[in-house]
Amino acid sequence: MNAAALIVFAVCLVLVAALGIASGRWGRGDLATVEEWGLAGRRFGTLLSWFLIGGDFYTAYTLIAVPALVFGVGASGFFALVYTILVYPVVFLVMPRLWRVAKRRNYVTLADFTQGRYGNHWLTLAIAVSGILATVPYIALQLVGIQVAIGALGFTSTAGPLAAAFALLAVWDYSSGLRAPASVALVKDTMVYTFVLVAVIYIPARLGGYAHIFAAAGRALAARPTPGFLILPPGQYLSFATLALGSALAAFLYPHMAASVLSAKSDGVIRRNAVLLPSYTLLLGLIALLGYMAIAAGVQVSNNNNAVPALLLRMLPGWFAGFCFAAIAIGGLVPAAIMAISASSLFTRSIYRRYLRPGLAPAAETAISKRVSLLLKLGALAFVLYGKPAFVINLQLLGSIWILQSFPAIVFGLYRRRWHPLALLAGWIAGMIAGTAMAWSQGIAVLYPLHLFGHTYSAYAAIDALALNLAVALALAPFCRRLARAAGNDETDPLDYEDPLPELAPAKA
Q: What's the predicted TM-score (pTM) here?
């Protein structure tokens, strides 16, 4: 055990724990309401939203998994870099419109919007179920990322430190709601930027420069039993492109990402963040290069997820390695807190209140959301400690397929209510079944070899499932309308979606 690394790690965690708990006193608002507890009263400005969305999007598992994938297979791991380039134009175009209607109609979750737009509780239930299913294993993955960082410190058992991280999450969520991860995100991102910038300058200098790193990584990848590639080969273009596109379309449909967007104080804040957030893409590209550095440094690990911690311990001073591990752990605590808050709000508002307690008071709704948040984190902790983390990872891969099936109802619904809700529900069911079956047939893998007209196309199963989803919804929409089935009431107004024109200053005489 590296004493210097452990001390720095512990000090950083204690400081951010205190900050998260104290943040409950920041700003005015009644934390007994879901509006305040789950969205912080929708009052975050540009800077705080930038840190919150970045802290929610770039998680502990991102800091571990992206370079681990590059370490394992090479260039294919850089699909994450491409999808974060594609996602922000989508955010710029779509999310301000979602914020406007959610603000004017007091919607807290995407399921709230679905119910208000289509007036069909079965479609709303489908959106809520896919959101919760996709989020729960994501919480467990953050704990896996924290576990990897803790294990690198030299603990023979990570159960105790991981339980302490769970306790910290529970206190944050109960006492401060979304304010805790939002305030800590500022510290977390500052630490991550420091760790990455120092690592990508200091480590290459010790390894002989980037030319040596790329040459050594290229030779090592080509010599493996299953060869990797420093440069993406043409045979992987389709899988790479569909992975990037599918991930970009799905990213902000996750409940925790939607909560980060809806907590902004204006649609202008979201547009400014869509312009500013690509700076994180640059950071992600630098993080991915750590995988090549680990290869060049001769790192040998039984699990690729341990490649970055092993690299940091080998190449950096002990105290700074402890700082880096703290950044990774905090990078898991921030999104895990937001995920638990958003998933519990989704369950309470769209399932519990609708089907079990229709007349639930706002304060009781918040209290139940807090308990559900605790149960979600407790289940994730138990799975990490006593289950198989690899299975959690596989479930999260399925989660990306599941969450993308809500795209037609939400994104298309923001612009036009043309499709019948029952047709959208049928498309959702078809996409969920097909996507799950494709992934399951490949051993819970996201790439599926689709055989068409004598050719095999290996593509992201979420894109294949989404194509089927759209085809079914489009084909059934006329039949649903012809059968005169009720389409449900749309409680929104066209003006809810519009960006109001700025008031003109009175002309001077």
A: 0.88
